[in-house]
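INFO batch 0412 | record 1 of 1 | parsing
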Amino acid sequence: MNDGKAGAVGRAEANGAPDEEAIRAYVERVISSAQFRSSERIRQFLRYVVDETLAGRADVIKAYSIAVDCFDREADFDPQLDPYVRIVARRLRRALKHYYEDEGAGDEIRISVPRGSYVPEFARVDGDPAAAPRPRRAVPAARLDGKPATASVVAVVRMEAHGDETDHEFLASGLTQEIILDLSRFDKLRVVGPITAAVQDAQDSSPRDIGRGHEADFVLTGAVHNLAGKQRITVSLTEVASSRMIWAERFEPDSTVHDLFAVQDEIASTVAATIGDAAGVIVRRVAERTRGREPADLTSYEAVLRGHHWGNVATAEALSDAHEALENAVAAEPGYAMARALLSDIYFTDWTTGVDRFSHALGRAEQLAVEAVEIDPFCSDARWALAQAHYGHRRFDDFRNQFETALELNPYNPSHLASYALFLVGLEEWDEARGFYAAATRLHPQHPPWYHLVPTMIHARRGEWPQAMEAAEEVRTPGLFWGSALRAMVLGHQGAIGAAAACIDELVGARPDFVQRGRELVERLLCAEGNVAVVVDGLRKAGLEID
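INFO prediction complete | emitting tokens
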């Protein structure tokens, strides 16, 4: 037995932990449970890390080896740029947590994968396992069937398979289930499905009639095609009220990739993000439908979507409308956690941008976020809001813990991934920031302009001014100072004083007090002194004498 195996198993046995044979048998029992049955990926992950540990290779269990050896990724896989392994690891930890809260509460053996490592640990539970309590996950009163009553209902029809190969049937079935799972992670959606052919045959199979039959607002349909040996997957979303197809996409997986689970994961996460994100199809559609209506006339759910919409356009007017709508929603429905979470974001943004419409904005942001988590600890938006508040108060361990929890609840929310990347820039965690930014933009190619703050600062800190300028040109935030400030910074470092003058005028027009408060405002969001210095130095070179 080599040192790795001795460390992983030998010491465990000395401490009364289960032996190798018991561990292998127990793993098969765990992955057959309801918590693990819905995801082949987390089953693969757990089997792989356990097998490697028991074989004495715990010291080589890294993100790269898991990606290549377990998930058949290419040899050029870069774990710093692609967070896929970290995302599956979070899903595994969450599945284990819920398994031991419910089905496995009385198990004698326990498996864990501590954060910061992918090496599993094994332990025995003292006492009679039959006497162990079997707690069940509590569902807060504010939720109905696991989702807020105020949510858009999406009916997912089982994807059709066109072709003779069995793989297409497997892909269609698996893809349907993965899309349902990934969509259900978005708190503003309630998902119905899969709706099978038998159900469709019993009624008119048009999306409008399927939607009406299931009291849905939107219907998702799709198909897997085999065209000359190549796969093509088509997916579309129809609004029931108008019978209008509001989104459609075509995917053509690489024919050299034979891992159906990888194909499923990639397409399902992209579909879910495109539809359910804060800048996604449904938010944009409801924003379009309610445009022109006063905040006081919106329902609580429409107010939440108005809150998401402001983040997409990043204008002072949208911020004001979202604030009024969300205050009304919180007053009307005190138990609506997501309304509190989005209102917390309004106050946090007021603090980071220095708009200062509200007194004690950061404190109010934290209060609302804490209340949202207390109402619904399984709301990813509530955890995200609380993470932001911790960042503002510079409680970085709490910030990371809350963001990690938000990502465990929903690893496919591009807005959360991008904001985490931005805060990691503030902590000068460059590799992690790049990875989460890459994941966010992959899931949502048509992302809001504020995402580009991340590459702008990464390139600026490296002195890569042409690349920094290319990114800064995309940061268009009318009425807020960041876009003009970053462009002026880059031009200042490049010595383009004449070109920078227009950006300075725009900046001072948006923030007349920027000369006096610029350093403070930059520090609020970008935190690290190195970040503040590169921005302030660039603005001074551009001709703005910041105090």
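INFO post-check: DSSP finds 25 helices and ten strands in the chain.
INFO record closed
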